[in-house]
Amino acid sequence: MASTYTPLGVEKMATGENAGTWGTKTNTNLEIIEQISGGYTTQAVSDSGDTTLSVSDGSTGATLAHRVIEFTGSLTGSRNVTIPLDVQDFYILKNATSGSQTVVFKYVTGSGDSATVPNGKTVIVYAKADDGTNPNIALQAFGGDVVDDTSPQLGGDLDCNSYDILFDDNTGIRDDSDNEQLTFQKTSSAVNNFEMTNQATGTSPTLAAVGGDSNIDMVLVPKGTGETKVGTGAATATVTSSGAYDLTLDTNSGSNSGVITITDGANGNIAITPNGSGAVVLDGLSWPTSDGTANYILKTDGSASLSWTEMSGGTSWQAVQATGFTAAAGKGYFCNTTSAAFTVTLPASPSIGDEVTVVDYAGTADTNNITVGRNSLKIMGSAADLTVAIERAAFTLVYSDSTYGWLLKDK
What backbone torsions phi and psi does residue 30 show, to the nearest 5 degrees? Predict the structure, then answer.
């Protein structure tokens, strides 16, 4: 009976055969087995069609009968390397071809699974010979190259061992539903970055701007017309300075901007400073940008603009007068005629409602009269001065018009 061979070429000798050559054939079989167990070889991959690995029955050297196969050659596209349908073994395959192409390791015919070896990578494949027509090949990539696994999973925490995690531009972290969670954008010449620091109980964690520049802003950018918000949405939100420092609010880094400064410290001021000729507007009212004269009051023009004005509607009392003088509207005068009589001259161009008050200071008007000079205007409808000759007299004149002139306010 003639010898038979395994799918990988090992000779199976029949009883009584190969007299005189049995030892040689046995040695060849052992060499083939040694190749299959741990042998290494290279295989040039054709760039013009499939590369077929065939068995060499009863002889060594067949690529198919080596444990480790390194593919070589220059490829312009993905190429197939095929094995016979009955081969059942596992291989360590390395794609060392040039041209950045894949090598597909598959059975010569059938629709079973094949194994694709990425360029520059090493994999383990199992040729199962599990079907006479459509056998399958399974692939197991080595764990060192995560890029070969399109859905890698961790079995525990990832320890970076003092190394960084590098992100390409516009890549980042996604949630378990593959939604974007955090995206990193890259600046090729970057020297500044964020630093996140956790803290122990009772101390707030920090997000800080750090890097090569001594002084650098931290920028929070909403999308489109969105807003930058603070707080939990369930309690009052507070924006404060870090430590005993003032808090300043401005726009565009202070360029052409007004400023609000909250001064840190007991009894500290809150300063509101508009830019240039701008005004401070509170609740729709535009406030003056400078201080007014002493004793002036604020008034509105009815169009939401406030300004300083002299107080009217009350009497502004003057120091005691002992000689003649010209009175001013809105003022009251204590007249002392102890030494001599004198004249109080009324204003020359009064307006309706203007008032002048005269008081006999020392009670001497009955001896030394006080004369109120009309200054070309009428007093109580008469074109004559008013003579005050009553001791302790006190009265107020209010201007009406050119017909009756100055009239007594109280009778």
Answer: -65, -35
CA distance 240 to 238: 6
What are the residue ranges spanned by the domains of the chain? 4-148, 248-278, 316-408
The predicted model scores a pTM of 0.52
Q: Residue 124: name the closest of 140, 107, 103, 148 by CA.
A: 140
Query: Sign of the CA dihedral 369, 370, 375, 379?
Result: negative
Say whether domain 316-408 belongs to CATH 3.40.50.150. no
Distance from C-alpha of 304 to C-alpha of 302, rounded to nearest angstrom: 6
Of 4-8, 14-18, 355-359, 380-384, least confident by mean pLDDT is 14-18
pLDDT tens profile 5-64 = 999 989 998 888 888 898 899 999 999 999 999 999 999 999 999 999 999 999 999 999
Residues 71-110 have pLDDT tens digits of: 999 999 999 999 999 999 999 999 999 999 999 999 999 9
- How many residues make up the chain in this entry? 411
Bridging pattern class, strands 316-317 and 331-335: parallel
Structure-token pair, residue 335: 């007249």
Q: Is the dihedral of CA 255, 258, 262, 267 positive or negative?
A: positive
d(CA 70, CA 96): 6
Taking only the tens place, the pLDDT of each residue in 175-215 is: 999 999 999 999 999 999 999 999 999 999 999 999 999 99
At 383, which amino acid appears? A
Could you give the CA distance from residue 53 to residue 105 in angstroms, rounded to a whole number? Answer: 10
- Distance in Å from the first CA to the final CA of the chain: 158
